[in-house]
UniProtKB/TrEMBL annotation:
<feature type="transmembrane region" description="Helical">
    <location>
        <begin position="311"/>
        <end position="332"/>
    </location>
</feature>
<feature type="transmembrane region" description="Helical">
    <location>
        <begin position="411"/>
        <end position="428"/>
    </location>
</feature>
<keyword id="KW-0472">Membrane</keyword>
<dbReference type="InterPro" id="IPR025695">
    <property type="entry name" value="DoxX-like"/>
</dbReference>
<dbReference type="InterPro" id="IPR051207">
    <property type="entry name" value="ComplexI_NDUFA9_subunit"/>
</dbReference>
<feature type="transmembrane region" description="Helical">
    <location>
        <begin position="381"/>
        <end position="399"/>
    </location>
</feature>
<protein>
    <submittedName>
        <fullName>Putative NADH-flavin reductase</fullName>
    </submittedName>
</protein>
<feature type="domain" description="NAD(P)-binding">
    <location>
        <begin position="8"/>
        <end position="156"/>
    </location>
</feature>
<dbReference type="GO" id="GO:0044877">
    <property type="term" value="F:protein-containing complex binding"/>
</dbReference>
<dbReference type="Pfam" id="PF13460">
    <property type="entry name" value="NAD_binding_10"/>
</dbReference>
<dbReference type="InterPro" id="IPR036291">
    <property type="entry name" value="NAD(P)-bd_dom_sf"/>
</dbReference>
<dbReference type="Pfam" id="PF13781">
    <property type="entry name" value="DoxX_3"/>
</dbReference>
<keyword id="KW-1133">Transmembrane helix</keyword>
<keyword id="KW-0812">Transmembrane</keyword>
<feature type="transmembrane region" description="Helical">
    <location>
        <begin position="352"/>
        <end position="374"/>
    </location>
</feature>
<dbReference type="InterPro" id="IPR016040">
    <property type="entry name" value="NAD(P)-bd_dom"/>
</dbReference>
Amino acid sequence: MPKAIVLGGYGLIGLACMQALDKAGFEVCGVGRSMRSAKSVAPSANWIIRDIPTITTQEWLDILEGIDVVVNASGALQDGAKDDLEAIHVTAVERLVEAATTLPVRIVHISAAGVSETASTSFFRTKARADMILSSSARNWVILRPTLVLSQEAYGGTALLRAASALPLIQPIALPDAQIQTVYVGDVAAAVVASAQGKIRSGTIADITERDSHSFPELLAKVRRWQGWAPPVACPTIPAPLVGALGKIADLLGYLGWRSPLRTTALTTLADGIRGNPEVWRNAGGEACRSLDETFDLLPATRQERLFSRAYIALPLAIGTLAVFWLLSGLITLADPARAMSVLSERAAPSWMIAPAVLGGAIADIFLGIGIFWRPWASRAALGMLGLSSVYLVGSLVAAPDLWADPLGPMVKVLPGMTLATLVWLMLDQR
């Protein structure tokens, strides 16, 4: 039985490749840096848990022993808290190729349509350098360059499409001149299998894409119809400067660990267009890729599809609301601590605990409000908000039960905040 390793095996493309290779009779092993993410998508698969850019050439020699095919589906969109494009796209490929030159192994490399050393984004430039390293140094290789990949899995650009198409009542018009071609993830996986089986000759570089292209607004409209939403009441035009500003904000959030599909790399890529030439793949012996409509036929939009799209919009709003609420709660208390302390002193609370409770609570509020912005801490911050809110509620029942009957409902209003924190905790998941 031939053996294959898939780098980035629990990603959108990587997982599809693992499943397709397994069905084609390969013994498959995935490589990724998170066991939790790996086991959540493919619990019965074999995994090597490593941060791919840190693997040395010697370690690759050990990993590749007895391996027939390496599929490189790893990658990142933009530099951020967890991602270094140079390390992921260039250094890792250099070491892999150096090790593979002494072994009878074929490398099937997933690149991207439109890569160029003079491209407008680091993503495309580093991908182009990886392609060049592979094509000039490897012995047995195929480079596949998909356009915008559509899948039942929603991630990155596909999640953005789903969310933008699910906006209630409106369908924003942005990037009207952008032309996009798509490809079904199953067609990408089939191309990988054909390459792994040796049906595609070594040295092939081919775009994997449908034939037709679509303007970005047209693509959004088709996704909206596919999801089953009502036609929009209004289609406001989003000015280019506003789109750019959103990208800059998303870039900043990227350094806090949030991999937003609104980052400038994604927006620039969309604005430049995502297009490829399907003829090279057909001439190399590959099967034609499905059209956008045929892809939608394979991906029925279910209720969970629509719930995800709306939740994807709601999650950042919920996180922002919680952050502002908790930050303001702490800052307002610190701005006039004597007033806050009087709430307890007027109710005969023990004097020794008044200042620590008020000041400690204010500092904890601020810490949680800041903490939920940092992606690695966000889930724990949401749980912390639940815990601290519970302490406030119990403490109020003991020290100030009359506040529950206050006409403005200061304690009752804590309950919706707890509910919002619970929803954020439940929705915060990462591949």
